[in-house]
Request: fold
Amino acid sequence: MTDVSGRAKIEIAHLAKSFGTQAVLKDVSLAVPAGGVVALIGPSGSGKSTLLRCINLLVVPDAGEVRVGDDAFRFGAGTKLPGTKALARFRAGTGMVFQHFNLFPHLTALQNVMEGPVTVQRLPKAEAEARARALLAKVGLADKAEQYPSRLSGGQKQRVAIARALAMEPEVMLFDEATSALDPELVGEVLSVMRALAADGMTMVIVTHEIAFAREVADRVVFLRDGVVVEEGPARTLIDAPQHPDTQAFLAHFHRRGEAPAA
Amino acid sequence: MYQWDFGSLWTYRWLFVQGLGVTAAFTVAIVVIGLLVGLAAGLAKLSHVAPLRWLSNAYIEVFRCTPLLVQLVWFYYALPILAGIEISAVGASVLALSLYGGSFYAEIIRGGIVSIDRGQGEAAAALGMTPAQSLRRIILPQALKRMVPPLMNQSIIQFKNTSLVSVLAVPDLLYQGQVAAHDSYRPLEIYTLVAVLYFAALYPLTWIVRRGEQRLATSD
Reply:
């Protein structure tokens, strides 16, 4: 599942990032083929969210390479930081979904979804609205188009946020703990939207604590700890039969809670 | 017991009307210019460019930490000599009052912007917006709502501050009152009336601000 040139869709090489003296990522590499779904798992503070935010350069790495599609950036000594225009253009090609939704509270659901196409892509209003309505229908919220975010449930907010990201017609979608802030009974509706996206062939990187979901939907799982990739492999293999003791210890916690089927 | 005689003030009615007009015009001018200066200084203080931050900080602190009356006098007497330019009393007054107000507006505007959740800017950036687009479309519309009550409060203070321009013989409400007082020998009535006029102009404004704050509290 690679593009014509045989390259992966997303390629991260030798990424390093520190916040102050705290090294959050140490020489992390990652490749995601077109249409692939990769889940990043690991304990809090493992660097998985930072890694995800480096893919769309919301966090600018200290060193390493980031490539999404044909856009590549190199970081480290002797390289120039990309300008705000280049960064904006690059980010327009990647969709991101946040743990706390980050919907724009002063705009309706419809306006939230239209905002990117109108402001960034300069799409005519009518066209942007048609696209936004189609996407809201796709996430099952056609009837909530005129509502403000404060009137929506958490699950509905997150589905609007997914539609908002999709409206930019991104090449890849990044999910940063998209269900962690939701009440348990609302997790399912968001996961089912993500599952449908994956089935549509969207290239996705997912930071998640939903181990069962990762096992079911992801092709590959990457386990991070203390800023390094400890173990990586096909989703089922890694989750059902982890090799590294750290991975085993981490997953044992979920198995005990019955959140993932026993191997 | 003092014998009040407000009837004799009727002669000066046009003086008061003119004075009130000048005070109102001054307020509008210094609020508008002050807001523009404040917006620029507030944004500069949030800039990634360090010299811009220093410059804005220096401006804000200088004007917040010196008395307005001193600024007025300095702009009228000292600045023309130092800069070698002619500046009218009205020009000096508008300049000093706008810059003074701008320093307070700047802090309100900066505070309003930083009070918006970081996630908003991140979501805008993730959509591919430039920082300027994010500010204009996402951050400012939300921040503005929070800034309006303190900005209105500061503008009410600015309204009252215009009375200081009378020391530079700008014919505002207080100055015209002084003229009338010298002419009529009725300072008690005159200054009482001046106070009442300021109050009558400002009280409805404070009422509007309070209404605005309540609406804001219930809307989110």
Q: What stands out?
A: Chain A touches chain B at residues 56, 58, 84-85, 87-96, 98, 100, 102-106, 115-116, 119-120, 150, 161, 164-165, 168 (CB under 8 Å). The longest helix of chain A spans residues 184-199. Residues 99-169 of chain A form one domain. Chain A has a mean pLDDT of 91.
